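Students often ask why we bother predicting the structure of a whole assembly rather than each chain alone. The short answer is interfaces. A chain on its own may look different once its partners are present, and contacts between molecules only exist in the joint model. In this exercise we take two input lines together and write out one structure for the complete complex. Read the inputs first and try to guess which parts will touch.
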Amino acid sequence: MYVILVYDMEQKRVGKMLKLCRKYLNWIQNSVFEGEITEVKLKELLALAGGIMDKQKDSIILFKSRQEKWLDKQVIGREKNELDNLI
Amino acid sequence: MYVILVYDMEQKRVGKMLKLCRKYLNWIQNSVFEGEITEVKLKELLALAGGIMDKQKDSIILFKSRQEKWLDKQVIGREKNELDNLI
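Now the answer. The structure tokens for the assembled complex follow.
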């Protein structure tokens, strides 16, 4: 399954969430990740994410598609987060 | 065409971009929008966005799909940006 994950977190929890998501998906922008993932691994990711986030304040939006080819991705502006290699 | 748009902007330009994107798409999270849009309207949106953003620093990622049904959306945590009705 191909997913796009976007989180909106309070600053103090961003670091942990970023680190977690990068273990499972590819980081493509500030708070945006994408990649192929199995249902089992996605459940694992969401369970761990649930432990980090404050569900009254933070949110995660997931878009799931059975196949990546159904989506066409386009990046305008800065291509890649320069922090990518630093963390 | 169904699109998901995510922007990553410097704070000082966020307000303008938010206002612009809300004219064309539905705001679903901090910097995330989705909706049906025609090619013509999308071009218009991107041209106007290009005038707001600093392409060395900011970025927009677009995911396009011919049909929304190919995507399954899931929200975890806070459902809707509470600012939605204020702006």
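Check your guess against this: Chain B touches chain A through 35 residues (CB under 8 Å).
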